[in-house]
Automatic annotation (TrEMBL), chain A:
Chief location: membrane
Keywords: Cell inner membrane, Cell membrane, Membrane, Transmembrane, Transmembrane helix, Transport
Transport listed as a keyword: yes
One GO cellular component, as annotated: plasma membrane
Protein name: Iron(III) transport system permease protein
PANTHER family: FE(3+)-TRANSPORT SYSTEM PERMEASE PROTEIN FBPB 2, INNER MEMBRANE ABC TRANSPORTER PERMEASE PROTEIN YDCV
TrEMBL record, chain B:
Source organism per UniProt: Deinobacterium chartae
GO MF terms held by the record: metal ion binding
Keyword Signal: yes
Assigned protein family: Belongs to the bacterial solute-binding protein 1 family.
Keyword field: Iron, Metal-binding, Signal
Protein name per its UniProtKB record: Iron(III) transport system substrate-binding protein
Classification via PANTHER family: IRON-UTILIZATION PERIPLASMIC PROTEIN, THIAMINE-BINDING PERIPLASMIC PROTEIN-RELATED
CDD domains given in the database record: PBP2_Fbp
Upper classification of the organism: Bacteria, Thermotogati, Deinococcota, Deinococci, Deinococcales
Signal sequence annotation: 1-19
Length: 531, 329
């Protein structure tokens, strides 16, 4: 019988020396994220003294308020939705939990404008609901519709983080609570919930930052957010400098979100200590609740996965008579999968040293690097793309518009989300294990590589799945930085949809979902217990 | 795992094809519209290795500006004149030979001779045929301030063509009247959409009855959804301030290392087969080679465009400022 305790980190910081084998790569990664920031400062400085006036104009602040409200709502709802979904698929005997587990992660494959169309097509004027009952939701435009669309298609960020945390949760804690006479709910509140806190706040932060930088859904559902204001500057006035001023305000807003998350995350770390081997993850028996649970996961799958698929299939069928299916989608599909897999792997490798440094060796420098790496998420994707165009074309012409620079750009863009998931996983690994390895004669680097890294399995897989899915649908960076002529499924969807050829957009979009499903199923299979 | 490392190694090691006679085109017009036409150019010029980068016009313009003199691009084929104007203003475009510029009415070319329009699109009022008959339509864009259109108008203020219309109003009617018009339409609570496509969709759903759009989007919808799509275009009366022709155009980059091939490409866009492609496939106004537009369009001669330079960037900035001042943006 193993026993387990919850360790609370003492507030007294141990003096730590920063190991160079982690610091160097981490500093490089953190520095990479400085490029877009440097670019923004460079462009914003061209505006001169008007910059501050522009940043604090009443209109700017009003739009910032809109953005804050939407962000709060989407984050809250995504968290509330993900908690039961992750619990049911990762820690109970829900029938078909493996399949549900994959299906519930998929809604994030839909490009956000497709999400917008789904909400409009289901609830808006002349939509499905309207056609069936004559009722239509007048609030579909604005805050209501935007909140719904973004929640349905971004909750997987929280869900995936929670799943990884639940798989690493030590069932002994739960059993101890139950044996001390706590009921299911009470045991959940006292043992599971505290263990999930870092995953909840980390996943919530990702949803928040995604919402802040999203343009597709809010543009379609006519809600005026900050990313739209930035778009107006680029699109209407061809003004890169004022757009940069706005983007810096956005980065400031994101910095506030990060501080808030650090507050909420709390100083707790959770890991097993004591003798005994690790046991398989928790399996709570649902009993009669089973069917209620099935109904819940089925309802979410219906809304966030089947409904958008239906919309795509309707598009496909509607245009079928005039559709030239002779277009070859095989090459873009292979390109999408290959480049997404490479991005997932590379981002994981880049995030590992940063995460280990931030969790194991807290210091001013490691916190700074971690915060920097995280800030990449607040940048509108177009800014990340343009900054790399600027530095790439001017200083690295040999690498500009090659796969190397494209993968680097993906890494900068998706590092924050990878980091969030990895950090959560690391908090569940007992540092004494590494110390034991040192005592047995391993070097510090060997101990990290042979003890800690293997224990991060669930977290690393969840992080890889996340990057894969987001790269599959990535657009701005791909359009501006990929080698000329390189086409992915996402660029195919965009090219057709931007000209209202929805029928033609449907085929690559469906293929995008299919390829993502296969890949995520493959990645999440690795969650299985090592025998 | 080993496999993915291999993929990674392969991907990053792929050499870039570099041909002696290479031409790189940045196209702000999407592949689904102009892809077949550009394929024709490739077939006709087997000696030139053509690479095309598709994207959004404004984003490609920003990209070209950021690339500076290291830009790999030779030609910029843009969806609108504003993006070409932005590049011209920053001195990034090379002057085109008179033989190229002479093929198009000078209304549709850059005053500095640095870009040329290749196809035109007119502003129209698109309407839902179930809600309105052709007789009930406003004859002028200026009539949209009439309270009877309250809640029935759809527009897309972030769209470059819409902004060009506002610029035209400022030029022809004066700042004060343009501002009054914007405030007047805004008092009618128009619905704001992301772009022309979204306005057309809303018209199809019956969410609004009138939409301010470019004329050729409708034809995409009819192609995609069949003739039952309940929307049609209406031109304003000849000479109305709302009758504006925007152009898609092309310019050659100053930094181009292959100007001969670049000019050849621009010439191709003005040739008879290309102009016929614009007339028949994208339903735009051909601007050269004496090709006639599709039958049911108001002839170009009847559309009085305001005497102004579409690429005038300061005006575009002024327009964005006015749109923000009146709360439209």
């Amino acid at each position: 019988m193993s026993h387990a305790v919850i360790k609370t980190a003492s507030t007294r910081q141990r003096r730590v020396s920063l190991p160079p084998y982690l610091t160097l790569p981490a500093a490089l990664v953190g520095g990479a994220v400085l490029l877009p920031l440097a670019y923004l400062l460079l462009r914003a400085s061209e505006v001169g003294p008007r910059a501050l006036e522009f940043a604090l104009a009443g209109r700017t602040l009003e739009v910032l308020g809109n953005t804050a409200l939407l962000t709060a709502l989407v984050t809250l709802l995504s968290t509330v939705l993900s908690l039961p979904l992750a619990w049911l698929t990762a820690a109970t005997d829900l029938p078909g939990r493996r399949a549900w587990g994959v299906l519930l992660a998929l809604p994030m494959v839909f490009p956000s404008f497709v999400g917008g169309y789904v909400v409009l097509g289901a609830l808006g004027h002349g939509g499905l609901l309207d056609a069936a009952t004559g009722v239509r939701w007048e609030g579909v435009y604005g805050l209501g519709g935007a909140t719904l669309a973004l929640t349905l298609f971004t909750y997987p960020y929280v869900y995936l983080a929670l799943r990884a945390a639940l798989r690493d949760f030590d069932p002994a804690l739960w059993e101890a609570a139950r044996s001390l006479g706590h009921g299911g709910w009470s045991a959940f509140g006292r043992t599971v919930l505290p263990a999930l806190r870092p995953a909840l706040t980390g996943g919530g932060l990702l949803v928040a930052l995604y919402t802040v930088s999203d343009f597709g859904a809010v543009a379609l559902l006519q809600y005026d957010t900050f990313s739209r204001a930035i778009y107006v500057q680029y699109q209407g006035a061809f003004d890169r400098s004022l757009a940069a001023v706005l983007a810096l305000v956005l980065v400031g807003f994101a910095a506030l979100l990060m501080l808030l998350e650090a507050r909420l995350r709390g100083p707790r770390v959770l890991y097993r200590s004591g003798s005994g081997t690790r046991r398989p993850p928790l399996r709570v028996l649902l009993g009669p609740w089973r069917w209620a649970a099935c109904t819940l996961v089925a309802a979410v799958t219906l809304l966030a996965l089947l409904l958008p698929l239906t919309v795509l299939i309707v598009w496909l069928l509607r245009g079928l008579p005039g559709l030239e299916l002779g277009r070859d989608l095989l090459l873009p599909a292979v390109s999408s999968v290959a480049v997404s897999a490479a991005a997932a792997l590379l981002t994981l490798l880049a995030a590992l040293p940063v995460a280990i440094l931030a969790v194991r060796h807290r210091s001013v420098l490691s916190v700074l690097i971690e915060r920097l790496a995280f800030s990449g998420n607040a940048l509108p994707p177009i800014v990340v793309a343009l900054s790399l165009v600027f530095f790439g074309a001017r200083y690295l012409p040999g690498l500009y518009q090659t796969f190397a620079l494209l993968l680097f750009a993906y890494t900068v863009r998706f590092l924050p989300q990878t980091l969030a998931v990895l950090r959560t996983a690391l908090l569940g690994v007992n540092p004494h294990l590494e110390e034991a390895a040192r005592l047995l004669g391993c070097s510090a680097a060997q101990a990290t590589w042979r003890v800690t890294v293997p224990l991060l399995r669930s977290g690393a897989l969840a992080a890889a799945a996340l990057t894969f899915l987001t790269t599959m649908k990535e657009l701005p960076v791909t359009l501006l930085l990929a080698p000329t002529g390189f086409e992915t499924l996402a660029t195919e969807v965009w090219a057709a949809a931007s000209e209202a050829f929805f029928a033609r957009a449907a085929a690559p979009a469906l293929l995008l979902v299919a390829a993502s499903t296969a890949a995520v199923a493959l990645i999440l299979r690795g969650e299985r217990e090592p025998q | 795992m080993r496999l993915s490392f291999l993929t990674l190694a392969l991907l990053t090691a792929l050499p870039l094809a570099s041909a002696q006679n290479a031409l790189t085109v940045y196209s702000g017009r999407s592949e689904s519209l102009v892809g077949p036409l550009l394929e024709q150019f490739k077939r006709a010029n087997p000696g030139i290795s053509v690479r095309i980068r598709y994207g959004d016009s404004a984003q490609l313009a920003a990209t070209l500006l950021e690339e500076g003199s290291n830009s790999p691009a030779d030609v910029f084929f843009s969806q609108d004149a504003g993006a070409l104007g932005a590049l011209s203003k920053e001195g990034r475009l090379a002057p085109l030979p008179a033989s190229v510029l002479g093929k198009v009415n000078k209304t549709f070319t850059s005053p500095r001779g640095e870009w040329v329009g290749v196809s035109g699109r007119a502003r129209v009022i698109a309407y839902n045929t179930r809600a309105l008959s052709a007789r009930e339509l406003p004859q002028s864009v200026l009539d949209l301030t009439d309270p009877r259109w309250k809640g029935k108008i759809g527009w897309a203020p972030t769209n470059a063509s819409f902004q060009a219309l506002v610029t035209a109003l400022r030029k022809t009617q004066g700042e004060a009247r343009a501002e009054a018009w914007l405030r007047g339409v805004r008092a009618n609570n128009p619905r704001v959409y992301k772009n022309n496509t979204a306005v057309l969709e809303a018209l199809g759903r019956g969410e609004v009855q009138l939409g301010l759009v470019n004329h050729y989007y409708l034809y995409n919808f009819l192609k995609d959804q069949g003739p039952d799509f309940p929307v049609r275009n209406a031109f304003m009366r000849a000479g109305d301030a709302g009758n504006l022709v925007n152009v898609a155009g092309a310019g050659v980059l100053k930094s181009s290392r292959n100007r001969a091939a670049a000019e050849r490409f621009v010439n191709f866009l003005l040739s008879k087969p290309a102009q016929e492609f614009f007339a028949r496939q994208t339903y735009e106004y051909p601007l050269a080679a004496g090709v006639r537009p599709a039958a049911d369009l108001l002839p170009l001669a009847q559309i009085r465009t305001p005497d102004m330079d579409l690429s005038d960037l300061d005006d575009l900035k002024g327009t964005v400022a006015l749109l923000q001042k009146t709360g439209v943006l």
